Amino acid sequence: MAEKPSNRGWSWWYLLLIVLCAAALWVPFYNTVDPTLWGIPFFYWFQLLLVLASAVVIAVVHVVT
Question: Quick check: 17 and 58 in contact, CB under 8 A?
Fold first, then answer.
């Protein structure tokens, strides 16, 4: 049986990773205290949310590509 050739080229799914990098590097966007979430400033809980979202997006991109 012939094996399917692997397509290791560029994919549109990789743009999701670029969006995550841009969000993390654009500090003036999230460099604020308000709104707070359970007393935690926006700066900290946005970074934590970004880490969790990055893990999910990286897993999705890995599975899809």
Answer: yes
Q: Which residue segment(s) compose the domain that 33 sits in?
A: 29-65
Q: Is residue 16 part of a domain?
A: no
Tell me if 43 sits within 8 A of 32, measured CB to CB. Answer: yes
- d(CA 44, CA 10) in angstroms, rounded, equals 33
Taking only the tens place, the pLDDT of each residue in 15-25 is: 999 999 998 89
Can you say how many angstroms the Cα of residue 59 is from the centroid of all Cα atoms in its chain? 10
Report the domain count for the chain.
1
pTM: 0.73
Residue 2 lies in a domain: no
